[in-house]
């Protein structure tokens, strides 16, 4: 038996309301360029809109002019999507509350997640959306996942409840030491001011 190895998210498709509501939310609120549309190839009564969330991957939305937005929270039963999280910069995150409130969009307020900050709100169809902002940049040649797994191991070894910034800092230091060469024989911390 062998795995089917995936290499990233190709796209996520959501069921939307009408075409304009979808464009107004995904591009007009979240800034995702509307890159193309075509019919839903499995249902000729629906449109299929494509948006770029910022990494060249795709968020797509099935639309139907007979469907109306419904902001009631989408189901969170087993097997349902709980929320979608999108990466934002620190600069954008710091403006999120103000920009949501100027549109009258209710939100959770900023939430401290230890390794990131989050804010939650619903799209026009009731799907919970998270704006997430990492509190770190991975070292060159490493990914956020590399830092997270190293920070997790440090957290577990320390007996701490959740990943905190101190675990991230130690993980980054460890990854740099393992991935980047140095002419020094002793790379331990020193005090040149002593």
UniProtKB/TrEMBL annotation:
Assigned EC number: 1.13.11.-
Domain of life, per lineage: Bacteria
InterPro entries named among the record's database cross-references: Extradiol_RC_dioxygenase (IPR052537), Glyas_Bleomycin-R_OHBP_Dase (IPR029068), Glyas_Fos-R_dOase_dom (IPR004360), VOC_core (IPR037523)
Domain VOC intervals: 8-134
A Pfam family reported for this protein in Swiss-Prot or TrEMBL: Glyoxalase
Keyword entries, A-Z: Dioxygenase, Oxidoreductase
Membrane-spanning parts: none
Coiled-coil residue spans: none
Enzyme category, top tier: oxidoreductase
GO MF annotation terms: dioxygenase activity
Protein name: Putative ring-cleaving dioxygenase MhqO
Species the sequence originates in: Phaeobacter italicus
